[in-house]
Amino acid sequence: MEGDCLSCMKYLMFLFNFFIFLGGACLLGLGIWVIVDPTGFREIVAANPLLFTGAYIMLAMGAMLFLLGFLGCCGAIRENKCLLLFFFMFILLIFLAELSAAILAFIFRENLTREFFTKELKKHYQRNNDTDVFSSTWNSVMITFACCGVNGPEDFEAIPPYSSLEKATPEACCQREIQSREGMFVNKEACLLGSERFQNRQGCYTVILNSFETYVYLAGALAIGVLAIELFAMIFAMCLFRGIQ
User: pLDDT per residue over 82-114, tens digit each?
Assistant: First the structure.
């Protein structure tokens, strides 16, 4: 009976580590996609030190989970106590780090409010000055998502033009035939003169929130699932470690 129990524990351990292996592969792929994606995310990530750091943390965590899942599978199948102990210690560190990151994200979530982004936009945005990273990033976001400002074009009324030739509405808010920097304007002159017909009137906060709402919940569910799998994997690792003679 004890041998059957140990064998069952071994294969359950292998199964949990296989899921950790897959989770690590997903995080690794997602991190690589965010960093190299050509549709505007790369510019956004590069311009924001917090996002830049977060993308590479995701990449590192994915690589570590990928490696640990592989080691856990090997340790379970070969019944190697050193590999199992190594796996347990590192998966514990990762579990605590992920838990801390989740708690910090919950605490500082107020920094992602509409008011915060509106304040930052009015403080740092320099319209069509592409030499400024903040302005260039915002222009890329507005072009990519066909939106204007945080709440709408009215956000730019309090922002002085970068030069005397510029209008109140930035070029990035004008409608294009194709939503990219290379896309032709529908009617640039009318847009810059204030014609709402040729402007993107919807704010970027609402557009981006609606675009990523499903993915945020999916990412949250995935994170909870990964934490649960890691917890069970640690329990099975210790049980298997103690059961090996």
Answer: 877 888 888 788 788 877 877 777 776 666 678
Q: Structural domain of residue 89, as residue ranges? A: 1-110+234-243
Quote the tokens at residue 146.
């066909």
In a domain, 18, yes or no: yes
Give the total number of structural domains in the chain: 2
CB 191 within 8 A of CB 198: yes
pTM, full prediction: 0.53
DSSP codes of every residue in 44-82:
HHHH-HHHHHHHHHHHHHHHHHHHHHHHHHHHHHHT-HH
DSSP character string of 175-233: -BSSSSTTSPBS-HHHHHTT-GGGB--S-HHHHHHHHHHHHHHHHHHHHHHHHHHHHHH
Please check whether residue 222 lies inside any domain of the structure. Answer: no
Kindly compute the dihedral angle of the four CA atoms of residues 138, 43, 188, 204, in this order, to the nearest 10 degrees: -40
In a domain, 4, yes or no: yes
